Please model this.
Amino acid sequence: MQISLEQVRQNAAAIRRKVKVPVLAVVKADAYGLGAAAIARAIGDVVDGFCVHTLAEAQAANLWDIAGKPILALGPAEMIDANDYLAAHVRPSVFTVEQAKHLVMANPILCVDTGMQRFACPPENIDAVLAAAPIEEAFTHAIKTHHVEIFREMMKGRGLRLHAAASALLDEPSVWLDAVRPGIALYRSAARVSTTFVDVRDSHGPVGYRGFSTGRFGIIRCGYSNGLRRGPCLVNTSPRQILEVGMQTAYVEAGPNDKIGDEVVLLGDGLTELFVAQSWQTSEHEALLNLARIGVLEYREK
Ligand SMILES: *Cc1c(COP(=O)(O)O)cnc(C)c1O
Model:
């Protein structure tokens, strides 16, 4: 996979210009497979902070040493020594009284449930958690604007710094609050994943496990063990289909002039995360993370 650090920088700068509130870049899951350390180095001066899922992710990428910007762990609080969070300059998010008390030294932030019912504080417990530790910041994982409206109402008059918007809400100025937390929007169009044909031939009869019919086809050295699924690709700039995916190889539709050694593009060159995701019937996040597992990471400045 080739990653354009310049594209990630441009994406981050465009979000920053648009929202005019602090941008907390989500680099969890190793920056969606693109490499959290390299991404943090590329955008450290453009964004205002970073979000990971676990403390270990921030430690593994050396996030604090790279950028010196605030780091938030969005995942369920780990009941470990608060000093471990402090040492890595990571603030845990808490949703119970027990967590807030245990991690008070690590300056925790409150995670509030506004409808998703994912690890977060239910409305009726907010007062108790806020009483248990001096908490100055709260967030919710919001999918729709109404989640944020509920959040704003719940937190009214408490004087906390609030944030809710992930990439899906970056077009909704009314919900940007005091910061935004984009993930996928930082990475769109930055990754290019390709492989080459190791064989190309004209079919004679049913092909592969499914016994499907096709004309000319090629084989790539990439399969479901690498995260690949049936769907679109590009061969010599023509849109083609991945016809059948095996464990470590796949059959790809080929044109009359396609030959062994030709490049097969699985993401990039105009083949977007969204297009692949729609074809796979999944999210852009899952499509990018799957494809990011293919090949070694190679960073380009442009
Ligand atoms: C992953 C995550 C984000 C970023 O989501 P995107 O859709 O990739 O922008 C923001 N907030 C929380 C709590 C998350 O878990």
